[in-house]
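Q: Give me the 3D complex with zinc ion.
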Amino acid sequence: MLFALTATVALSAGSTFAAEYADTLRVGIYYDSATVDSLTFNSDTGFAAGVVAKREFVPMISVSGSSVTVEKASAGGSKKFYVSYSVCDDAEMVESELLKIRNLGIDVFAGYIDSEFHILSGTFENNNDALWEAENAAVKGRVISVSAKGTCLKNSSGKTLLVVDDGECGLAVYSKNFEDKNALLNISGSAKGSYRGGFESKILSDGKLTVVNVVPVEEYLYSVVCREMSPSWEVEALKAQAVCARNFALRRINYHSKFGFDVCRTVCCQAYSTSADNSESVHTAVDETRGELLFYNDEVVQTVYSSSMGKRTENVKNVWGSNFPYLVSVENPYEDTENIYNGKWSKSLTKVRATEIMKAGGFDIGDVTDISVIERTEADSVLKLQVTGTKGSKVFERERCRTIFSEATYSQRYTVSNGGTKTYPSVTVTNGDNISVVGTNKISVLGGNGNISTVANDCTAFNGKSKKQYKAETTDGDPDTFVFTGEGWGHGVGMSQYGAKGMAAAGFGYDEILTHYYTGTHLEKAY
Ligand SMILES: [Zn+2]
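A: Here is the predicted complex, encoded as structure tokens.
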């Protein structure tokens, strides 16, 4: 079970949505530092392949067999040459046109090059070889080239089935029965598994494949609700989560446009993974709230949420500095903070580690000697945290009070104390001549000669008859360690997931849960 909790959420300014909503979502699977050289798909039913244009799958060919692979068309990086025998008016003509040319004895496959549907042969390494073929085949063709951004689809015997080279549309692979909402397609690689919807593969500037799962919004929610909340929870809580996840996703259309998709699959957006999402209660929660969105006036609400929040939620202005009238602090009475995972927590951080974190963050304040809360919010979260070192101090504000020492702070609501103070016993020795001392200089010793000397962290006093061991004791913890004690897990703004669970268990409906956590909002069926 994953919760959206560590993400730094960039809230976009409140914008009024047009009454049109995307019905598919593009979810980044392999991108940025995790692009791939090739991707293998498996399906029991065979495949449909083509391109994705404006979020819609445009099927060109159907492929039998149980596996296909997408890779770069121009392995080695140089551009490749093909002979085009025919350009089809639309995608639906491609298969019959392929058949027609094949009947002339030419081994052809489909292509989508610069917005045109081609019937191609190849691959040719150079223009001359392609030209010879174009002149001498049973039907005259023309030579076209494919850039380093071209991709191709091959069957399991390595035969080319489709080549795509287009600025807008990527190569799309779906399962053959893609119109069935339960159709699953299996992919290889680190995000391997079965997914709903299909996949679009494109080559971006790093020369590798960026892979995007194109999935209907409602089917995307099956996975997200399963990942963001336990499917065993009350269905009204799952419904509230479904609406939150739907709002959140529809506000993030084009959020990762740099890589050509809307949302990623991590908690940066919402946790999404392979569709082992057959929880009946989650399907019920999504299906029974289909198309329902939460609005503030006519604005689709920014439905941020996190695992738990303790006694109150936090005003967004105290976390991200932005102002949303519906993201204000409200009571959170139904959250069972005492008994839930990380509801109440206490974590320690050594001064050495605090110093390392400051250094790594570029804050040159020397060795950390003190960490103090200097201002709190009305909801009792930390608004300003001062870290003092031997060379200076630094004040952190809002969300940074949670994230700067994130290994010791699960939320923004905590107290911090110095781990303890050392106290030292006094040792009285009646015969100073007989004292023997081991160690350094912390314990006070009153010798038989009347002198007080400060001796060891640990010392052994010997009075001529027996030895006694003394230890410099730490009575209430380790003075070289800070202890953070707090409540809640996550950023603390919007809906508390455990609070929603508690409200559902107490008999509240999902609409009541949502309007409690998002002040002044209302539910509406948008589609
Ligand atoms: Zn993201």
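A quick observation: Confidence is low (pLDDT under 50) at residues 1-10, 12-18, 431-441.
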